[in-house]
Recover the amino acids of this structure.
């Protein structure tokens, strides 16, 4: 056969194109990456979806993955885990106090802590993220512990026959130092994370800031508001009855001055 130069069969043209073509399920796939800074990830993706999705027509499709996909999975899990944990905590409080009102007053510490957590994010200009939501979950334990310390001591004094007002006054004198120490130790442990600027700081700082500010407001509001709430709405045990302190082996007169 006769040999022919390639130029007689085809033409060559140098253009700019894709250096790599990937496929997913037999369809071509193009990956577009971006980093989000200075705002929350969910808000950015929602705005991007509102602008980009109307431009995508058949047979093209778009899928949002990466950190946003992990965020959505974690958010769905938290919607189940957090309510379940709070219900279990309230159930344990009720089994200890046998009083819905007293249990709700201890549970109000969660609201006190959330106030500080939200203020902390606003002051530091940080968006709400999964790490921040984990910080709110961690706050619940510390907040409930401080309220539990106060209410338990008040109930023990009332069980010994003291009037409600005197029980509250004795409780504030005796439990001020333990409550402050509990809150201070928990908050100081997260200060290095709140001030971190290295690798992983974008995950650590929101959690730590929520915990530090939340514990601060919870400690203050617990000492100021919770005694007033108990004076107005608390029921307490009857004189001579056992209370939660007896179940943990503490002497009923151990904290008397």
């Amino acid at each position: 056969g006769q040999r022919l130069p390639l130029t007689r069969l085809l033409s060559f043209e140098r253009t700019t194109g894709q250096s790599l073509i990937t496929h997913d399920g037999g369809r071509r796939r193009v990956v577009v990456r971006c980093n989000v800074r200075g705002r929350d990830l969910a808000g950015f993706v929602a705005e991007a979806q509102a602008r980009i999705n109307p431009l995508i027509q058949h047979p093209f499709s778009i899928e949002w993955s990466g950190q946003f996909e992990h965020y959505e999975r974690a958010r769905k899990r938290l919607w189940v885990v957090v309510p379940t944990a709070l219900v279990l905590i309230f159930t344990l409080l009720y089994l200890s106090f046998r009083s819905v009102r007293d249990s709700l007053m201890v549970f109000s510490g969660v609201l006190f802590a959330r106030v500080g957590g939200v203020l902390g994010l606003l002051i530091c200009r940080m968006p709400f993220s999964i790490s921040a939501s984990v910080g709110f979950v961690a706050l619940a334990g510390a907040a409930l512990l401080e309220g539990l310390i106060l209410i338990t001591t008040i109930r023990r004094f009332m069980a010994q026959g003291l009037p409600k007002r005197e029980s509250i006054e004795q409780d504030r004198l005796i439990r001020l130092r333990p409550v402050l120490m509990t809150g201070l130790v928990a908050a100081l442990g997260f200060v290095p994370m709140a001030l971190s600027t290295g690798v992983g700081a974008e995950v650590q700082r929101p959690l730590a800031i929520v915990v530090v500010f939340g514990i601060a407001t919870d400690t203050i509001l617990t000492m100021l508001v919770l005694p007033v709430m108990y004076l107005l709405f608390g029921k307490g045990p009857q004189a001579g009855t056992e209370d939660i302190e007896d179940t943990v082996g503490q002497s009923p007169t151990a904290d008397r001055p």
